[in-house]
Specification:
The complex is a heterodimer of chains A (322) and B (333). By secondary structure, chain A is α/β, with parallel strands linked by helices. Chain A has helices at 5-30, 45-52, 68-73, 78-85, 119-132, 151-162, 210-225, 256-263, 267-277, 283-305, and strands at 60-62, 139-144, 167-173, 176-177, 180-181, 202-206, 231-236. Chain B folds into two domains: 9-188, Thiamin diphosphate (ThDP)-binding fold, Pyr/PP domains (Rossmann fold), CATH 3.40.50; 202-329, 3-Layer(aba) Sandwich (Rossmann fold), CATH 3.40.50. The longest helix of chain B has 15 residues, at 12-26. The chains are: A alpha/beta (322), B alpha/beta (333). Bound molecules: thiamine diphosphate. Chain A: One of its GO terms (biological process) is pyruvate decarboxylation to acetyl-CoA.
Chain lengths: 322, 333
């Protein structure tokens, strides 16, 4: 059954917001205007959007080094996000975290994470807290195919299964851990299979089809809210840009043809085609949303770039709670 | 051709590469394992070409699994191989801490001397590249505190090659720390295999009236500081311990006997840092020769910030080192 038109438009908007934020960040990084390392999410938008559409106030997300998309999907503020990427005092982390540590506690986004596998144990803690406090809230734990090899993932999955925590593990299987293809870093094909070892269901879904992600995530989250425990949702997806930054440098680890083939299944194009078929949004309508989001991006970048850098006195602030 | 032009120059990244190649050519029991070290040649590029030359059994891409990766090294070393285990960023050693601290460091001792652990763990430390708090740390003091581990830090290409060769030849676990901000730094590197003996400091700049003891990247900053100090009539001696465990205290004491003053400089957080150990040792071993307390320069007591505006104030530099020397001498810095 196709979700309601307003749901489809919401998914479309969430994905476009991620895409346009990321493409601008990529341009700024290439132009040397953003310091540090940038891990782009472009291509994987359907995963964050499809899951986040089910989350509301009080729910949490744990994220990865590729975390902008997760924050945008749960409603992150472009201005504070760009300001953080630029290292400004007005940024989400007051310039201390940057791209890899961007977070919004008010939105329940417990941080992008520089440590692969750092998120799952924290998600267990958040889910434990929700159960303890009897909130009915859920925690969505995003992680990659590469991260699923860390002990921390397995330890977290075992605990989540044992305590039947209100948690969904969302594996963003983009086929690579950095530059290593999945078949060279694990002997299995479906990471969803790992759930069986911990006593909860594992589900594989097409991560380029936002409707499929939305529906599968909806079931898993409803199950978690009902107190029936975790689900591992594996979304097969692909990143269109390099592991870090925009264009790959040096050693070639995947072909242009492979990237092109995946780009033909661009999750935004797929949804726009569907929306047009259903008569919900035509090309002109989609362009209008794009223009609107693009204007928001431009305004946010201007805000960020005109924001002050943090004062050196901030260096040793916030090491402890005062 | 002058000797200067005859001297072959290599950047740190190529010095490491050459050392690994020669080590693997020399001994079939030496292998390299780590995340993206084979097909991709490491994210820092130091293992490029090794897969082609030695094949996938000796240059091994591993899953992202640091605990198992170090454990792979411990078990392989205990059974006769000479593993070189690469932990991409020093920060990630947190994930493998049990294997390093409770297993690798203790096996020989706990087994009454019946185990030999020729394990080398290579990693990259250091800030300055706007990579924020989880990719920029200098954690060497953690490992210096654990009996059973040896710890070395390279300050340039010559040291990078000589230290890793000594580490791999050593029969105990050695942690080899390179600094990611130095990877492009070029300098003279002999073509042949050579070792920098563990526990032998280098006087990298002889001087007469002040001793600066610096580790890793701070050796370069201290050399620059020494140039600035000349303008103030101060001829500073710069010493690079190169190996923190074992530590060559004799060379440090000898220098202090001559200059009567010392400053220890490291990139790691100053509080609880390795500089405290050196300062305490000098105080114990050379008290009568000191005209002032031993000074210390290090990072502030905070995680490494992302913003360039903050990071610039975080990592010690030549100016800060020079002004600390002047302060210790009672002169306006
Ligand atoms: C503990 C740890 N080990 C290694 C790294 C280096 N690293 C950063 S991203 C990455 C690949 C992660 O792959 P995956 O989990 O599949 O996520 P993806 O990048 O594909 O989104 C690696 C190895 C790290 N940041 N942390």
């Amino acid at each position: 059954m196709t979700p309601a038109p307003e749901t489809l438009l919401d998914l479309h908007r969430r994905m476009l917001r991620i895409r346009l934020f990321e493409e601008e960040a990529g341009r700024l990084s290439e132009a040397g205007r953003i310091p540090g390392a940038l891990h782009l999410y472009v291509g994987e938008e359907a995963v964050a959007a499809g899951v986040a559409a089910h989350l509301g106030p009080g729910d949490q997300v744990t994220s990865t080094h590729r975390g902008h998309g997760h924050l945008v999907a749960v409603g992150g503020d472009f201005r504070r996000m760009f300001a953080e990427l630029f290292g400004r005092a007005t940024g989400y982390c007051r310039g201390k975290g940057g791209s890899m540590h961007i977070a919004d506690m008010d939105l329940g986004m417990l941080g992008a994470n520089g440590i692969v596998g750092g998120g799952p144990p924290i998600a267990v803690g958040a889910a434990f807290s929700n159960k303890y406090r009897k909130t009915q809230n859920v925690t969505a734990c995003f992680f990659g195919d590469g991260a699923s090899n860390e002990g921390s993932f397995h330890e977290a999955a075992n605990m989540a299964g044992l305590y039947r925590l209100p948690l969904i593990f969302v594996c963003e299987n983009n086929g690579f851990g950095e530059f290593t293809r999945q078949d060279r870093h694990q002997a299995i094909r479906d990471i969803a299979d790992r759930a069986a070892g911990y006593g909860f269901p594992g589900v594989v879904v097409d991560g380029m089809d936002v409707i499929a992600v939305y529906e599968a995530a909806g079931e898993a989250i409803a199950r978690a809210r009902r107190g029936e425990g975790p689900t591992l949702l594996e979304c097969k997806t692909y990143r269109f840009y390099d592991h870090v930054g925009v264009r790959g440098m040096g050693v070639v680890y995947r072909s242009d043809d492979e990237v092109r083939a995946w780009r033909e299944r661009d999750p935004i194009t797929l949804l726009e085609r569907r929306l047009a078929e259903l008569g919900i949004l035509d090309a002109a309508g989609a362009a209008a949303v794009r223009d609107q989001v693009q204007a928001e991006v431009r305004e946010a970048v201007a805000f960020a770039e005109s924001s002050p850098f943090p004062d050196p006195s901030a260096l040793t602030e916030d090491v402890y709670a005062s | 051709m002058t000797t200067a032009t005859a001297q072959r120059q290599l950047p740190v990244v190529m010095a490491i590469n050459e050392a690994l190649r020669q080590l693997m050519q020399e001994d079939p029991n030496v292998f390299l394992a780590g995340e993206d070290v084979a097909l991709y040649g490491s994210v820092f590029g130091f293992s490029r070409g090794l897969l082609d030359e030695f094949g996938p059994e000796r240059v091994v891409d591993t899953p992202i699994s640091e605990a198992a990766l170090v454990g792979l090294g411990v078990g392989a070393a205990a059974t006769g191989l000479r593993p070189i285990i690469d932990i991409m960023f020093m920060d990630f050693m947190g994930v493998a801490m049990d294997q390093i601290v409770n297993q690798a460091a203790k096996m020989r001792y706990m087994f009454g001397g019946k185990a030999r652990l020729p394990l080398t763990i290579h990693t990259m430390a250091g800030a300055g590249l706007n990579l924020a708090a989880q990719h920029s740390q200098s954690l060497e003091a953690w490992f210096c505190h654990v009996p059973g581990l040896k710890v070395v830090m390279a300050s340039g290409p010559y040291e990078a090659k000589g230290l890793i060769i000594a580490a791999v030849h050593d029969d105990s676990p050695v942690i080899v720390v390179n600094n990611k901000a130095l990877l492009g730094l070029a300098g003279h590197v002999p073509e042949e295999m050579y070792e920098i003996p563990l526990g032998q400091a280098a006087v990298v700049r002889p001087g007469t009236n002040f001793t600066i003891i610096a580790t890793g990247r701070m050796v370069q900053e201290s050399l620059a500081a020494a140039e600035k100090l000349l303008e103030h009539g101060i001829d500073a001696e710069v010493i690079d311990p190169r190996s923190l465990v074992p530590l060559d205290t004799a060379t440090l004491v000898e220098s202090v006997r001559k200059t009567h003053r010392a400053l220890v400089v490291h990139e790691a957080v100053r509080f609880g840092g390795f500089g405290a150990e050196i300062a305490a040792q000098l105080q114990e071993l050379a008290f009568d020769y000191l005209d002032a307390p031993v000074g210390r320069v290090g990072a502030p007591f905070s995680p490494v910030p992302f913003s360039p505006a903050l990071e610039a104030h975080y990592v010690p530099n030549a100016d800060r080192i020079a002004s600390e020397v002047l302060r210790l001498l009672g002169r306006a810095g």
